């Protein structure tokens, strides 16, 4: 039989699988120029504050600072610069505040960039409004105001994506209990319990003692469980005649008749447990 002369494209076409392209349409919000300006100022407020402060110091006090350094000896200026840099590097409240603010600014920008890439938009093209980013002991907390058309469901199963975008260990997304439009994203960057050695003040009295001394301690010996005695005992009741009548008084009174030849087993509290044995 002659070989088939059909080309590869013909064979693919015969199977009914053709290449189709996908088109994604993103609607941008129709906002006026003042609104865009105010949103840009709010988004870059910390960067603008730092630039404004640096410009003010340079223009208002730049000449005085240069004249001060020129009036001093070079070695004195070098020592002064080293002391200032050392104070900045060492752990102090000012350094912690600056580092926390820098991470809050970075986290806010990274969360917004992640929301854009995940297409967390409503039909008008608006993103959730980031109205706060606060520092915590483990990282940062970002508060979102969900615009009309968005809810907590738009961020379901997106915690790992947000954590990856923020260069963090993990992210926890929670909804406010009072308002469904407020969403809390907790960015965890460090684990306070990750230290290999935890110092406890409860171990000050026994930290230097050998293990044998701790094992022979009177308190440890007192805490050891004692042998539980057998609660069930076997007794034969006294024979008083052809039969014996025993009465138990409690919240519900009842009378039981026991035969002379039957062995009665009493519990630790005197209750007849013969029927359960």
Topology:
Layout: H1 8-15, H2 33-43, H3 45-71, H4 74-89, H5 93-117, E1 129-135, E2 139-145, H6 159-165, E3 170-175, E4 182-188, H7 211-215, H8 218-223, E5 233-234, E6 243-248, E7 254-259, E8 265-266
Structure commentary:
With 277 residues, the protein is of the alpha+beta class. The chain has a domain at 33-188. It has eight helices and eight strands, in the order αααααββαββααββββ. The chain has helices spanning 8-15, 33-43, 45-71, 74-89, 93-117, 159-165, 211-215, 218-223; strands spanning 129-135, 139-145, 170-175, 182-188, 233-234, 243-248, 254-259, 265-266. The longest helix is centred in the N-terminal third of the chain and has 27 residues, at 45-71. The chain is flat. The N and C termini lie far apart (91 Å). The relative contact order is 0.06.
What descriptors fit this protein?
8 helices; four-stranded antiparallel β-sheet; two-stranded antiparallel ribbon; 277 residues; alpha+beta
Distance separating the two termini: 91 Å
- Proportion of β residues? 15-25%
Helix percent band = 25-40%
Reading the helices and strands in chain order gives: HHHHHEEHEEHHEEEE
> Shape from CA axes?
flat
């Amino acid at each position: 039989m002659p070989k088939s002369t059909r080309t590869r494209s013909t064979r693919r076409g015969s199977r009914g699988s053709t290449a189709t392209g996908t088109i994604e349409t993103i609607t941008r919000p129709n906002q006026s120029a003042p609104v865009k300006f105010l949103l840009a100022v709010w988004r870059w407020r910390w960067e603008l504050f730092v630039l404004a402060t640096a410009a003010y110091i340079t223009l208002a006090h730049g000449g005085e600072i240069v004249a001060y350094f020129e009036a001093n000896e070079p070695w004195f200026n070098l020592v002064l610069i080293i002391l200032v840099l050392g104070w900045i590097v060492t752990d102090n409240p000012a350094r912690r505040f600056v580092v926390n603010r820098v991470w809050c600014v970075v986290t806010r920008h990274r969360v917004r960039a992640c929301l854009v890439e995940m297409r967390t938009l409503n039909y008008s093209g608006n993103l959730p409004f980031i109205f706060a980013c606060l520092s915590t002991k483990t990282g940062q907390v970002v508060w979102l105001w969900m615009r009309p058309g968005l809810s907590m469901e738009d961020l379901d199963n997106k915690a790992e994506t947000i954590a990856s975008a923020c260069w963090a260990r993990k992210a926890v997304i929670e909804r406010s209990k009072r308002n469904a439009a407020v969403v809390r994203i907790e960015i965890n960057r460090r684990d306070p319990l990750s230290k290999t050695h935890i110092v406890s003040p409860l171990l000050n009295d026994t930290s230097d003692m050998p293990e044998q001394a701790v094992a022979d301690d009177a308190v440890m010996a007192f805490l050891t469980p004692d042998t539980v005695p057998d609660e069930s005992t076997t007794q034969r009741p006294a024979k008083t005649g052809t039969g014996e009548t025993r009465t138990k008084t409690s919240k519900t009174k009842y009378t039981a008749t026991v035969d002379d030849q039957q062995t009665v087993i009493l519990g630790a509290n005197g209750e007849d447990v013969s029927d359960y044995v």
